[in-house]
Amino acid sequence: MADPQPGYRPAARWLHWIVAAVVLLMIPAGLIMIRDGISRPVQDALFLFHKNMGVLLVPVILVRILYRLTHKAPPLPRSVPGWQRIAARLSHVMLYLLLLVMPVSGFVRVRAGGFPIELLDRLGVGPWLPKSERVAEVAQSIHAIGAYALIAVLAIHVAAAIQHALIRRDGVWSRMWPPAGPGKTRAVRPGR
Asked: Which CATH class is domain 10-74+81-175?
């Protein structure tokens, strides 16, 4: 039997799945909170959740990016075609960029719009930005476009992961699953 394929270290797996879980909660909250016709208490709760989770997620995303920059990703199995390697690299770069753009644009939109971020306000962290409707509008546009770009890139990322898990069965999926895995994945089956 072949040697097990190297997997991501447990810290990388935990950071991945924490960010994934929070982002997968924030996307529907963000889409629902801006809809017409929802009750004000529900809308307020969703805004409160979305803004404050965004603030809490920033340091986790920064740690994740720093960790990724200081810890090389395990190699993909040799059976992964070159175009998929390039697509994986590009999609990961896009994910990291969007994970930075989204909270920054959300923060700028809220603060420049003159709205509170309750967690930061409670901690006595100032608004850092003067109120500016123009800046708030630009940030809102960036946040909206970024949201749909993030959804698209996440859909591609998840589809590729599922394809590797269920169709190719080449060990790519198990490099990141389970979240607290040992850092090694099962051997890749020959001919796959």
From this structure: mainly alpha
The rounded distance, in Å, linking the Cα atoms of 125 and 118 is: 10
Tens of pLDDT, residue by residue over 88-97, are: 999 999 999 9
Residue 63 to residues 131, 135, 166, Cα–Cα distance (Å): 30, 28, 31
Which pTM does this prediction carry?
0.89
Q: How far apart are CA 123 and CA 101, in angstroms?
A: 23
Q: What are the contacts of 79-83 at 24+ separation with CB within 8 A?
A: 79/168, 79/170, 79/188, 79/192, 80/170, 80/172
Is the Cβ–Cβ distance between 106 and 143 less than 8 Å?
A: yes
pLDDT, tens digit, for every residue of 73-118?
999 999 999 999 999 999 999 999 999 999 999 999 999 999 999 9
Contact 126, 147 (CB under 8 A): no
Domain ranges of the chain: 10-74+81-175
* Residues belonging to the chain: 192
Residue 88, token pair as written in the block: 């994986």
